[in-house]
Amino acid sequence: MRVTTSMIFDTGVATLQRQSASLLHTQQQVATGRRLLTAADDPVAAARALDLTQAREINAQQLANQDAGRAALGLAEAHLTGAQDVIESMQARLVQAGNATLSRSDLASIAQDLRAGFAQLLANANATDGNGDYLFSGYQGRTRPFSGSVEGGVNYNGDDGVRALHVAASRDLPVSLSGADVFARIRDGNGSFATAAASGNTGSGVIDGGNLVAGYDGHRYTITFAAGGGGPEYSVEDFDPATGASTSSGPFAYTAGAPIPLGSGAIEVTVTGTPAAGDRFTVAPSSQVSVFDVLGRAIQALDAATTDAAGRARLANALGEVRGALSGSLDGILSARAAVGSRMTEIDALAATGGDLKVRYESMLSQLQDVDYAEAISRLTQQQTSLEAAQKSFLQVTQLSLFKFL
Question: Which residues are paired to 195 by β-bridges?
Fold first, then answer.
């Protein structure tokens, strides 16, 4: 084979370029700490690293969502605790308002305290997060959930939606609450039925919240008092809303404080005091009420209360109705707090799992991508030696010429 000077130079240059490229590649690996500089370095490992990187990023987003969810639930918990404290304080004030020795100014003072509590409770229900979204408005994050006043009533402007965050591969965790469920859907009375006194009563009769003996049939009962020869008497009207049928029984002799059986003894109510002729009391199925409307009725009842016997009876009946609904609202808030607490516990468990996955993904990626410094530096030294040898060899070869011997 004919060896030309051009061939010698071309071969030498190609060898030097190839060895320089290998040396540069190794230098880049050592400088970056990455074994895979391009997918061509190890196609199988590069594909696996891509899958792991995507899984790691998804896990990182889920961890970020967990942090956001924890913050949102923490704010909801704080405001629910505030609402609970307000309601418990109002319950204590309402019990105090039932004291028959309080003067008109005392009742007005309690009403003023309840107005302040009403405003504080409304502020808790309209709380926002750090982004300006309302916590208790459902999907309507930018809509103020509750608006109104003591006299005009309070309306709910949100919806029943519950916002959720994707916190795990197969878990969308609710991180908000519907204000309607927490504050506006309270069962009045004892949860099964509610007792009430007619607004026109003139006697001193006061009805309690009733007692469920066997099972409430859903009927509406009206207890009407009349003057009897031996004292007050009462009759009972039993109305069945399912059939529209109504039956009456009585009159029965009234004994203050003695249970009055209704529905064949399935439920009992107790009336104390001395009802006047024509006074009426009703028992009806519990309905959904708003805690704000309940408090509004209590405040207005205190504002309008008088200190005569009939006035105190009207106030006692009004406050009795309110106390039952407030107990229901407190139960609703406690249930909401329990739900929030269970979600926060779930987030903590998911965060622990996500943290473990993060470490695992990093370890697996390191095995695929990171350079072995001992091997790379050894290879770098070898490549440097080979390049230097090639350079010296090329230098010697390029100096061969017959003209030196002429």
Answer: 283
Q: Rounded to an integer, what distance in angstroms lies between the CA atom of residue 155 and that of residue 184? A: 9
- Paired with 174 in beta bridges are 164
Query: The whole model's pTM is what?
Result: 0.75
Distance CA 78, CA 221 (A): 42
Phi, psi of 129 (to 5 degrees): -95, -170
Alpha carbon 191 to its chain's center: 24
Tell me: the pLDDT tens digits for 203-232? 999 999 899 888 888 999 999 999 988 889
CA distance between the termini of the chain: 25
d(CA 49, CA 231): 92
Please count the residues of the chain.
Answer: 406
Q: Is the dihedral of CA 379, 382, 386, 392 positive or negative?
A: positive
Are 42 and 392 contacting, i.e. CB atoms less than 8 angstroms apart?
no
Say yes or no to pLDDT of 399 above 70: no
Q: Report pLDDT digits (tens) over 135-148.
A: 999 888 889 999 99
The angle at the Cα of 81, spanning 79 to 85, to the nearest 5 degrees, equals 115
Cα–Cα distance measured from residue 105 to residue 111, given in angstroms and rounded to the nearest whole number: 10
Instruction: List strands edge to edge, sheet with 220-228.
Output: 193-197, 280-285, 220-228, 231-239, 246-253
In 162-308, alpha helices (H): 179, 291-304
